[in-house]
Amino acid sequence: MKNLLEFIVFCLAVFCVSCGGSADNGNSTAKSYAEIRQEEPNYMGDSTIYDGILLSHENKVNDWDKVAQDSLVKFVYLKATDGASVQDSKYKKSLKAARKAGLKVGSVHYFRMTSTPEEQFKNFKKTVKVDDQDLVPAVFAECEFKRSSKEEFSSALKSFLDKVENYCGVKPIICCSVGVYHKRLKKDFSDYMFWMSNPTIPSTSKYTLWQTDSYVGSIDGIDGGVDISTFNDSCGIDNLLIKKI
After folding, report:
1. Predicted pLDDT of residue 245
2. How confident is the model at residue 17 (pLDDT cuts 50, 70, 90)?
3. 77 near 108, Cβ under 8 Å?
4. Does residue 16 have a pLDDT over 80?
5. In whole angstroms, what is the distance from residue 212 CA to residue 162 CA?
6. In the chain, what are the domain boundaries?
7. 132 three-state secondary structure
8. d(Cα 14, Cα 9) in Å, to the nearest integer?
9. H or E element at residue 158
10. Which residues does 126 contact at the CB level (< 8 Å), separation at least 6?
11. Mean of the pLDDT values across residues 197-207?
12. 214 vs 123: CA distance, rounded Å
């Protein structure tokens, strides 16, 4: 009996150590990503740690108020346009509902090499209204990039980004994989913020946002998995907000 009690005490001690971390009102303090990277270089992401979400028509939001009540959701990006002719079917309705719930919202364009920057900007401008934006526009810049040379891709993308900047009054944030960043964008777009899409934490300190594997998040008010993103340790929501006069 004595040996059994000693064994139980030992197990409880191990359990307490493994669940350690400073506590405040019963909630354990999350480590920063800098600490996690140092301990686990190949960290694949934690679905309980995030700063914002990306949504499109593929996501079913049942209750925007519940989404807004999640203290970790500091921002929401919505897919708005794709190429020269596609508008996300839920964009306008979601934008209105999200802002009504008190969320900071931004819009995403998926850049394509199958149409000109001018044609794509017309689609973006027709769909995205500047006064409805809380966050800098986001441009996904890796779609079909293999259809062109690095020079052609850079020239077309820069043309589109310039048009969006002139329209919105702020530089867009560029969304891409770490591979595309190093191969195509690192040199010519060094004055832009980057939103890295990568399974593991990017090895570059350049990124502002990091998106984990697709649909790993679980958010109250939204059915199914959600794309979640986290700020670089040196960045925050102020990096994304449009400073309105």
Report:
1. 65
2. very low
3. yes
4. no
5. 28
6. 49-239
7. helix
8. 9
9. helix 150-168
10. 87
11. 78
12. 26
Q: Are 51 and 75 in contact (CB under 8 A)?
A: yes
Residue 27 to residue 82: CA distance in whole angstroms: 41
CB count within 10 Å of CB 90 equals 18
Residue 120 and residue 111: Cα distance in Å, rounded? 8
Strands (E) across the chain are located at 23-24, 27-28, 52-55, 60-61, 75-82, 86-87, 105-110, 138-140, 173-177, 193-197, 209-211, 222-223, 227-231
User: Which CA distances in Å does 132 have to 95, 105, 167?
Assistant: 8, 8, 13
CA 114: distance to chain centroid?
25
Say which residue the tokens 């960043």 belong to.
181
Amino acid type, 173: I
Pairwise CA distance, residues 167 & 85, whole Å: 19
In this structure, the chain runs to a length of: 245
User: Quick check: helix, strand or coil at residue 240?
Assistant: coil
What is the C-alpha separation between 16 and 126, in angstroms, rounded?
A: 57
Please name which of 209, 205, 183, 184 lies closest in space to residue 197, comparing C-alpha atoms.
Answer: 209
The CATH code of domain 49-239 reads 3.20.20.80
Query: H-type helices in 89-149, by residue range?
Result: 91-100, 117-127
